[in-house]
Amino acid sequence: MPGGPRGPDGPRGSAGPSAGTGPGGPQAASLTHGAVGRLVVALGTATLLQWLGAFAIAPILPLYLEERDVSAGGVGVVMAAFFLGALLSQYPAGLATTTRGHRPVLVAGLVAYAVGCAGLIVSPGIMCDTAMRVLQGAGAGAFEVAVLTAIAATVPPDLTGRAVSAVYTGQIAGTAIGPLLGGLVGEQRMDLLFLGAGVAAAVASVPVLVLLRPDGPGHAPALSVASTGSDASAVGPTAVGPTAGGGAGVPGGRAGGAEAVAAVAAVAVHRDGSPGHAGRRAPAWASRRRTWSPLAVVGPGIEGLLLVAAVNGLAVGTYETCWSLLLTDRGISTELVGLSFTLFSLPYIVCAMPAGWLADHNDRRWLVVAATATTGVTVATYSFIGSFWLIVLVSCAEAIALAVSFPSAQSLLAQESGPGGAGRAQGLFTTTQTAATAGAALTSGALYAANAHLPFVLTAVAALAVAGSLPWLWRRVRGTVVPAAVPAGAVPAASTGPAGGALASHLITR
């Protein structure tokens, strides 16, 4: 996939809007390594707690509903209500992060999820159960979008992959530990599981409130850099513009005082020789289409990423309905079915941070292509394998592919949307994935009943088709980015942060 996006409109070297302003607000300023560490601690801890509580409930809830004499169709409605809530909330949540900042959306999502848990404790019947699951899904969907937007809008490009990997590791750890806790409690004490999940969501808001400063309009940048000189304004104005070599240049910018230091310290240089940007500047095509429409963020790179999101959703929806059926049809015990989820999670957790490093140091386009193709091959094989342990081995290969795909895709999404479109792009990405998940979950059961191979093979065909189309779709998309040296006089102010942030910063930048 050679080449890169065209440079900005206007004459070469012309000054553009300030690097630290414009759409996306103050949070568009890139973070220092230490500040990234604090951000990762806050978002990773909150994600782990929210997903742990959610997945303590999810595997046991159908059994609980069945014990209350809810029909199989009713169980399906209650379970699908969660996806409906997420589908309805994710794009509006993306818009809200643009206008209000990611911090209030994070907290609002966690509160909504906790309220839904409390409602399930006192629910009198299936109608209330369904409404509370919609509320849970809406809260979880808004929370996920805000987490990913916080990374996309604030983390420097050369650290995005590892920051995303850290957050996804929290998700996978929650999916590995939560079902074990739910199984220990059992469906007879679902009230304790509902209460525990609600408390976990409430506790998850603590690191968000403590470690993240208020962001959005009217607030200073959440985390920034400072000068060691006696007067930050001595740095003077600065401009970032296209190089004489041409290619994928970005608009220039002028900043004064401390803003200038933050801008200079966050500059990145792409491997094609073109300058990067302080914070994240919207691509040239985005500046011509600033509307609230979802189509406003669809650019050369976003189209391919939405296809990747759809494939991920199809795979998740297929597994949601057919994985347990496939294993039990082969005589696998319920205990081993549960173990298969944990065994899938382990290689992902082990490979997540190395995969994030790969995303930050290699061509992310080819990483996503390879991972999507691997997903297609593995999905196609499951229904043809009779051995449980061989199925687990293949699923481990898929887990490694997903560990590579997620940070690379999210890093590309942040690059292609820019700060002004980060919230909308994340909302559109997650909405696409959730819609595909819901559609696959609703249809794959009937496909499996017709032919056990059908849902897996159709998902595999879709994945391989997308993998084959991505090189053409991304032929003008920039694949790699590396940081430039930080100028003398600009040092991270984050070195005085919490110990947890320092540790996370060390892990994410080593």
What are the key terms here?
mainly alpha; Growth Hormone, Chain: A; two-stranded antiparallel sheet; two-stranded antiparallel ribbon; globular; disordered N terminus; disordered C terminus; membrane; transport
Explain what the structure shows:
The chain is mostly helical and 510 residues long. The protein has a single domain, classed as Growth Hormone, Chain: A. Helices cover 67% and strands 2% of the residues. The protein contains 15 helices and 4 strands. It has helices at 33-57, 61-67, 72-100, 102-121, 126-154, 160-185, 190-211, 257-265, 284-287, 300-328, 334-361, 364-382, 388-450, 454-473, 499-509; strands spanning 225-227, 268-269, 482-483, 490-492. The strands form 2 sheets. It has a two-stranded antiparallel sheet. Strands 2-3 form a two-stranded antiparallel sheet. The longest helix is centred in the last third of the chain and has 63 residues, at 388-450. The two termini are 29 Å apart. This is Multidrug ABC transporter. It is found in: Cell membrane. Residues 39-478 form the Major facilitator superfamily (MFS) profile domain. Residues 1-28 are annotated as: Disordered.
